Amino acid sequence: MSPFEHVGTPSGDDGSPASEDGPGRGPSVPGGLPVPSGPERGPASSGARPDRTSAVGRLAATVERLRSEVQAAHAAADGRALIELAKGIMVERLRCGPAQATRQLAELAEKAAVSQLELAVDIINQAARDRVAEIAGDFLHRTRTEPAGTGPADAACATVGVRLRTAESAALAAGDAQAVADSLLQHALSPLGATAVAIWTAGSDTSLTLAGHAGFPADEAVRWRYVPPGVVTVARQALTERDTVRFASLSETGIPSIGRTHHPHGGRVALPAGTGGRIHGVLEICWQQPLPPQPPVIMRQIEALAELCAHALETAPASYGHGPTPAQRVPAVAELVDLADGLHDPALVLTPHLGPDGELTDFRIHHANGRFMDPAGRPRSTVNGALLLEAYPMAADESELFDKVQRVYATGEPFRAQRMTLTALVDQVPLAAVADISVSRHGDSVLLIWRIEDEAARLASLLQHAQRLGRIGGFEENLLTDEITWNGQLFALYGRPPTGTPVSLRDLAAHAHPDDGIAIGRFLRAVLHHQRSASAAFRLQRRDGVTRHIRVIAEPVHDADGSLLAVRGAYQDISAQHWTEVALAATRDQLAHTEQESAERNRLALQLQQAIMPPTRGPIAAPGLQIAVRYRPAETESLVGGDWYDAVVLPSRRVLLCVGDIAGHGIEAATGMVVLRNALRGLAITGAGPAQLLSWLNIVAHHLTDQVTATAVCGLYDPETRTLRWARAGHLPPVLVRGREATRLPLVGGLLLGAVAQAAYEEAELQLEADDTLLMYTDGLVERRDTAIHDSLAQLLATAQSPAATLEHRLDQLLTHSKSDTDDDTCLVGIQVV
Question: In terms of domains, do 71 and 174 share one?
Answer without folding.
Answer: no
